[in-house]
TrEMBL record:
Domain HD/PDEase, residue spans: 52-164
Protein name per UniProt: HD domain-containing protein
InterPro entries: dGTPase-like, HD/PDEase_dom, HD_domain
């Protein structure tokens, strides 16, 4: 993937598709706000103990390429795809849910203020028009149970790098189209997409991934209290900057937690049994999306699809985390 963004031709290797970036898109790709996403792992804290290292920027390019491919003339929708993740915190969802942040609100703020707003206005776009799109049901994403471009890319990208997909993503993207705001395909392709959903959820919602999430959130809280800083200090940071703050803290608790997270994860134990003084972590959200087949939800035409969706829903559990002293 050519991510220097000096040239307008941007190749997405996962889908084997080249998009010509419009002048305003290219300028946004060159902004610090977008560039920061290169230093946020899409896979959250799981990237700390796995080989999966793709970034939020990789995901953004993927989503934008899908929207540009199927909706080439809809410039505001393309911009929404380009900017939809800029408000993410370090390690993405890992600390957001536990610490009470909302990356959607952060994204809206970054679009409507500062360098992004300036670039949009320079080319005649209203920042509020883009944030309005992000809050509506569109082919990018929606509040329904149906699959849009954002989660489609997440599932396929994560599962591909996990090594859990039979078909390459480019084969699947060539077999989909959009029915309104929703991805539609045939049953076989739909089941392959659902396989990727299951692989992705099983991995990023594994007990140890959730345990690392919980310990990282605890370390951030301890850092904030020890150093008397508002916890919002983490909002503009990259993954590396956050780790640096935690590693250089003088707090004994923070030092111990980041040592375990980075160097000694084998000390962590996770159980479904309630344990006294254990750190409680839970699956707060799943993405049980489905595609359309001949205008109908795939679960209405396939028992296998219903079983796969139930596999994902069954992952909603609570765990108790301890570590060796």
């Amino acid at each position: 993937m050519r991510q220097t963004f000096k040239q307008a031709f941007i190749y997405e290797p996962l889908y084997r598709y080249e998009v010509t970036a419009l002048p305003h898109e290219l300028e946004l790709f060159q902004s610090k706000t977008l560039r920061r996403l290169k230093f946020l792992t899409h896979y959250g804290t799981a990237s700390l103990f796995s080989s999966i290292m793709h970034s939020r920027l990789d995901h953004t390019v993927g989503v934008w390429s899908i929207i540009a491919r199927f909706f080439p003339q809809e410039q505001e929708l393309r911009l929404a795809a380009l900017l939809h993740d800029i408000g993410h915190l370090p390690f993405s969802h890992a600390v957001e849910k536990t610490l009470g942040f909302n990356h959607h609100q952060n994204t809206e703020k970054l679009i409507e203020e500062g360098e992004i707003a300036g670039t949009l206005r320079k080319y005649g776009f209203k920042p509020t028009s883009i944030t309005t799109l992000l809050n509506q049901n569109t082919p990018l994403t929606n509040t329904t149970s149906y699959l849009g471009a954002d989660h489609f890319d997440s599932f396929l990208r994560d599962a591909y790098f996990e090594g859990g997909t039979v078909h390459n993503p480019y084969e699947l993207v060539n077999k989909i189209h959009f029915n309104g705001n929703v991805i539609e395909t045939d049953v076989e392709t739909g089941l392959h997409i659902m396989d990727a959903m299951v692989v992705d959820h099983t991995s990023f919602l594994s007990p140890y991934a959730l345990a690392i999430d919980g310990l990282l959130a605890k370390a951030i809280e301890a850092y904030s209290e020890f150093h008397s800083v508002n916890i919002s200090f983490i909002e503009p940071l990259t993954n590396y900057e956050l780790i640096y703050h935690l590693q250089t803290s003088e707090s004994p608790l923070v030092k111990e937690l980041i040592k375990i997270i980075l160097w000694e994860p084998y000390r962590i134990s996770v159980s479904e049994e309630i344990k006294k003084e254990a750190l409680q972590v839970e699956v707060k959200k799943i993405y049980d999306k489905e595609v359309l087949v001949d205008g109908k939800p795939i679960t209405l035409v396939s028992q296998v699809a219903r079983e796969k969706l139930q596999q994902i829903r069954d992952l909603q559990k609570t765990y108790y985390v301890t570590y060796e002293k």
